Amino acid sequence: MFDGKKTADEIIAFIKDYYEKNNIKGVVVGISGGKDSAVVAGLFTKALGKENVTGIWMPCHSKEEDKKNAVDLANHFGFELKEFDLTNLYDSYLNQVIALYDPMIEDLVDSNINIKPRLRMATLYYNAAYLSKKNKGLYLVAGTSNKCEIYVGYFTKGGDNIADIQVLADLTVDEVILVGEAIGVPDHIVHKTPDDGLSGLSDEDKLGVKYREIADVVDNNGEKTSEEARKRIYNLHQRNAHKFYTPTFKKS
């Protein structure tokens, strides 16, 4: 039986140990308004103290609900939340793409979605570098992906898969929720329906499978999951294998 409190304590100890051994000062977390970034921010606040955690809210044609959740979370745990609005930068980027290719709108959909996490990751690393210099100590960028997302490749290569430290990557979505409950993440955030904040669809709508089905495949070889769902999950995993491995020529 998974114990959310025990796992939360173990993650907090892991963070403390890594930071102490490597003489690291703080962390930057991209706050989306969803459960994963909320749990990550909460864990780091408990491990490092609120004064060493900086959350960055990066709206880009985003929902007001997500902003409210980000503010609620920062107020709840007491860490500083900064807003870095990417909307104009995104629009300018897209306008240049349109001028360059004069594309059909439907050809832009996936590329447009992937621009946002790449801009956000560049923003997080810029802020981490700035805070490291300003506060005279190294700041890391924390990853927020969970085990289910990673298994099916539900992330943007060169975007939200880039991080200096991962604390949820071995936890399924249900396990993330239990850890979040254990550390006191507000209910309306930790139980929020997961979505990418980009496409207007829930994660499960986009993937075509349930997160509990992915967890069952990852942890139990899909014993409780239909053959159709198992096949789709395995196909997603294989289709996105390029996100995990870069073929590299090596001279003889």
Walk me through the structure:
The structure is a single chain. The chain is α/β, with parallel strands linked by helices and 252 residues long. The protein has one domain: HUPs (Rossmann fold). The chain has eleven helices and four strands; from the N terminus they run αβαβαβααβαααααα. The protein has a four-stranded parallel sheet, with helices on both faces. Helix 1 crosses helix 2, helix 1 packs across helix 7 and helix 2 crosses helix 7. The N and C termini lie far apart (50 Å).
Main sheet makeup: 4 strands, parallel
- Strand/helix succession: HEHEHEHHEHHHHHH
**CATH fold name:** Rossmann fold
Average pLDDT figure: 94
Rg over CA atoms, rounded to whole Å, is 19 Å
The general outline is globular
Q: Which strands sit side by side, in order, in the main sheet? A: 3-2-1-4
Separation, N- and C-terminal Cα atoms: 50 Å
Oligomer: single chain
Helicity range of the residues? Answer: 40-55%
CATH hierarchy class name: Alpha Beta
Q: What is the structural class?
A: alpha/beta
Question: What's the arrangement of secondary structure elements?
Answer:
Elements: H1 4-21, E1 26-30, H2 35-48, E2 53-57, H3 64-77, E3 80-83, H4 87-101, H5 109-134, E4 139-141, H6 147-151, H7 173-183, H8 187-190, H9 203-207, H10 211-220, H11 227-239
Parallel strand pairs: 1-2, 1-4, 2-3
